[in-house]
């Protein structure tokens, strides 16, 4: 098929197909195909908000607190081309591409965060203000979408009667409204920055000839189901770039000098994708299930660009409150013994021991190793995570002693075979997993690419200790212990 590009109004291109366009409509034609994608051009955003937000981006950039993430994709360690920082509700985290980002807190009511610099505090405040603004805009756009849907249904009244209450056009029932609010309650924003001039190895968009990508096709992960995403886009354009260019729309695809966001239907490379140009201060919103039914990508333009991507992170297992409660649950089975750090266990029930080892793995791999893998970047902005991480590490250390106490029990002479087997069966897979994950994290920290990072971003393999460390009850490397436990289990079956 010949590559044809059609101008769909305001420089929006559907690349790869030809379609007749109704030019009499006041809504841009792409809106008919993408009702859940909303664009708000910069003119509709208050000037003062633009000024504050743009200054905030520059402040964070100046203080060097946006970082490229060393993520893991299909078993490979790769450095993201864009630099990022997560700002959001205190104690919130957001996980993407096997990387848990820890929110630098924004100053919500009742919080009292110390920031590294007063300017950083001001910047976080600006993103909270932007968040509030985008949340209101999202709810309004979503309500309009629902109202339009309902109006369309009302055109053909199939089932009108006493069982089918209609309060009138544009209104919708309470549940809808609560859902819309919950799914617009952004708890974090992930900020992105990239200067394409400094990034000469950008990938080409593979399906529609859309040019260089800053972020490849993806769905946003780890979000509350059907929740919205709102994006503020800030590219460093000179005034001359803002004018509509007059080149022949029939001949080429999107303007490579201008940043765009691309959309395509998931699992579909036949239906043409959509590329929406983003000028300085433009915002776009992905409503409802758009992020699930479609993929999006970011197409690089010429100038450097920031974006602030506001999300409803699914953080039921991703907050400080959550993990500290989990650790408290594990502590309930531990009794301190005198002063040497030794512990004894209150219950030897297999289910209780299993839960303890699960929490042990969770705090070690989802929190401590994730945090220290990202070097010392977090303390540059605020001290929020310092004390929680110290506390988690202390609790984790106790869990090492608890595991040691379980091992003492299964090795003890005179434990009934049945009971020992139940314990072994409950914990063996978890210890084997711990061994595998430690090896993987250790390798990730040693990788060639990890070594190229500057000192404050160098991954730290923590916790880590040497074989003969007298302060630790168990070795870092659990190979021998896992083999021993397997042996005990087989012995009993023989
Ligand atoms: O910068 C943008 O417009 C969107 C970036 C994006 O898709 C992401 O960070 O997930
Ligand atoms: Fe995204």
TrEMBL record:
The EC number(s) this enzyme carries: 1.14.11.53
Pfam family name, one: FTO_CTD
Subcellular location: Cytoplasm; Nucleus speckle
A molecular function (GO) term: mRNA N6-methyladenosine dioxygenase activity
InterPro entries, sorted: AlkB-like_sf, FTO, FTO_C, FTO_C_sf, FTO_cat_dom
Coiled-coil ranges from the UniProt annotation: none
Gene Ontology terms describing biological process: DNA alkylation repair; regulation of multicellular organism growth; RNA repair
Keywords associated with the record: Acetylation, Cytoplasm, Dioxygenase, Iron, Metal-binding, Nucleus, Oxidoreductase
Reactions the enzyme catalyzes: a 5'-end (N(7)-methyl 5'-triphosphoguanosine)-(N(6),2'-O-dimethyladenosine) in U6 snRNA + 2-oxoglutarate + O2 = a 5'-end (N(7)-methyl 5'-triphosphoguanosine)-(2'-O-methyladenosine) in U6 snRNA + formaldehyde + succinate + CO2; an N(1)-methyladenosine in tRNA + 2-oxoglutarate + O2 = an adenosine in tRNA + formaldehyde + succinate + CO2; N(6)-methyladenosine in U6 snRNA + 2-oxoglutarate + O2 = adenosine in U6 snRNA + formaldehyde + succinate + CO2; a 5'-end (N(7)-methyl 5'-triphosphoguanosine)-(N(6),2'-O-dimethyladenosine) in mRNA + 2-oxoglutarate + O2 = a 5'-end (N(7)-methyl 5'-triphosphoguanosine)-(2'-O-methyladenosine) in mRNA + formaldehyde + succinate + CO2
Domain (Alpha-ketoglutarate-dependent dioxygenase FTO catalytic): residue spans on this chain: 24-315
SMART domains: FTO_NTD
Cofactors (names): Fe(2+)
Top-level class of the enzyme under EC nomenclature: oxidoreductase
Primary subcellular site in the record, as a coarse category: cytoplasm
GO cellular component: cytoplasm; nuclear speck
Family named by the database record: Belongs to the fto family.
Quaternary structure and partners: Monomer. May also exist as homodimer.
Name of the featured protein: Alpha-ketoglutarate-dependent dioxygenase FTO
Organism: Hipposideros armiger (Great Himalayan leaf-nosed bat)
């Amino acid at each position: 098929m010949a590559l044809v590009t059609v101008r769909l109004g305001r420089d929006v291109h559907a690349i790869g197909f030809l379609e007749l366009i109704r030019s009499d409509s006041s809504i841009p034609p792409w809106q008919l195909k993408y009702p859940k994608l909303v664009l708000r051009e910069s003119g509709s955003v208050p000037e003062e908000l633009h000024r504050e937000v743009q200054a905030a981006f520059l402040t964070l950039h100046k203080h060097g607190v946006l970082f490229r993430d060393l993520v893991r994709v299909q078993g490979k360690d790769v450095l993201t081309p864009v630099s990022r920082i997560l700002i959001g509700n205190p104690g919130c985290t957001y996980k993407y591409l096997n990387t848990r980002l820890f929110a630098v807190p924004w100053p919500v009511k009742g919080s009292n965060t110390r920031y590294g610099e007063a300017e950083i505090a001001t910047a976080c405040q600006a993103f909270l203000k932007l968040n509030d603004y985008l949340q209101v805009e999202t709810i309004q756009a979503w309500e309009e979408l629902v109202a339009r849907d309902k109006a369309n249904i009302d055109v053909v009244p199939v089932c009108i009667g006493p069982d089918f209450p209609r309060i009138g056009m544009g209104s919708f029932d309470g549940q809808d409204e609560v859902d819309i609010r919950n799914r617009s309650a952004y708890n974090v924003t992930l900020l992105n920055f990239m200067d394409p001039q400094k990034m000469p190895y950008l990938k080409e968009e593979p399906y529609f000839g859309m040019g260089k990508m800053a972020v490849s096709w993806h769905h946003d992960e780890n979000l509350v189901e059907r929740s919205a995403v709102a994006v503020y886009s800030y590219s460093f354009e000179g005034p001359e770039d803002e004018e509509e260019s007059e080149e022949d729309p029939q001949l080429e695809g999107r303007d490579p000098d201008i940043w765009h966001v691309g959309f395509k239907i998931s699992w579909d490379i036949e239906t043409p994708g959509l590329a929406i140009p983003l000028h300085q201060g433009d915002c776009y919103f992905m409503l409802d299930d758009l992020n699930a039914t479609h993929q999006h990508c970011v197409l690089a333009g010429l100038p450097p660009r920031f974006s602030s991507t506001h999300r409803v992170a699914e953080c039921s297992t991703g907050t400080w409150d959550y993990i500290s409660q989990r650790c408290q649950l594990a502590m309930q089975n531990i009794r301190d013994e005198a002063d040497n750090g030794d512990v004894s266990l209150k219950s030897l029930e297999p289910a209780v021991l299993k839960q303890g080892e699960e929490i042990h793995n969770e705090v070690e791999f989802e929190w401590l190793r994730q945090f220290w893998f990202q070097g010392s970047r977090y303390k540059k902005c605020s001290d929020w995570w310092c004390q929680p991480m110290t506390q988690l590490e202390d609790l984790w250390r106790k869990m090492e002693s608890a595991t040691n106490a379980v091992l003492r029990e299964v090795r003890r002479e005179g434990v009934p075979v049945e009971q020992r087997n139940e314990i072994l069966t409950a914990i063996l897979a978890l210890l084997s997993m711990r061994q595998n994950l430690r090896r993987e994290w250790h390798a990730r920290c040693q990788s060639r690419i990890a070594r190229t990072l500057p000192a404050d971003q160098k991954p730290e393999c923590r916790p880590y200790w040497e074989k003969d460390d007298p302060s630790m009850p168990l070795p870092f490397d659990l190979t021998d212990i896992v083999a021993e436990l397997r042996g005990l289990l087989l012995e009993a079956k023989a």
